[in-house]
Write a structure and sequence with these properties.
Strand content: over 45%
Radius of gyration: 17 Å
Helix content: 10-25%
Strand order of the largest sheet: 1-2-3-5-6-7-8-9
Number of helices: 2
CATH topology: Lipocalin
CATH architecture: Beta Barrel
Order of helices and strands: HEEEEHEEEEE
Largest sheet: 8 strands, antiparallel, barrel
Distance between the termini: 19 Å
Number of strands: 9
Length: 184
């Protein structure tokens, strides 16, 4: 029930009205990846809420930090308690626009390059970002994808000196969302 309310809230944020052609998901995927000579760290989150209004280009997503899953339980514990402080900062969020939405026909099957610009909030810090991605339209669904890097220092995420060489200063983030139309 809580997730359903989150999806409806995101759809409302995107359009200002509930049933204007919006595409949403509550099962989007975000992965982050850190690779150093000492250790490779990867975590996946398959509970990403996201919404897109193809007419306006408004695009949002919200992530519960504790939903990231790691191969090792101890990594997950350190991630939540020491680095992300997920009790204090439970969510990450992006709110912005597909800048070139007017050039994309979201009703026509095919893959389109996209420029996404907006505010990314992680660890209580909001930064303006602009990234490239793609939207693939197929069978009435919109598949959004992007790969970009986030610098830990930009979001005031501190890594203790003892493990500093094990965690990259730049984290690769992969966004993969399959958005379906909300029917009135």
């Amino acid at each position: 029930m809580k997730r359903k309310i989150s999806v409806l809230f995101i759809a409302f944020l995107v359009s200002g009205t509930m049933f204007r052609q919006n595409f949403v998901t509550k099962t989007g995927h975000i992965k982050f990846y850190s690779d150093t000579p000492i250790e490779t760290i990867e975590a996946n989150n398959h509970a990403v809420n996201s919404a897109l209004n193809p007419k306006t280009g408004d695009f949002v997503f919200k992530i519960l930090i504790k939903s990231f899953e790691f191969e090792k339980a101890l990594m997950q514990e350190h991630f939540n308690e020491n680095y992300m402080e997920s009790d204090k900062y439970p969510n990450a969020m992006f709110k912005g626009k597909v800048v070139n939405a007017g050039d994309i026909d979201f009703g026509l099957a095919g893959t389109n390059d996209a420029i996404i610009k907006g505010d990314l909030t992680i660890h209580g810090v909001t930064k303006a970002v602009e990234e490239n991605g793609t939207f693939t339209v197929k069978d009435g669904k919109i598949h959004g994808q992007s790969v970009f890097s986030v610098l830990l220092e930009d979001y005031k995420i501190k890594v203790p000196g003892a493990v500093k060489k094990q965690i990259s200063e730049s984290i690769e983030v992969t966004v993969d969302v399959m958005l379906e139309e909300v029917k009135p």
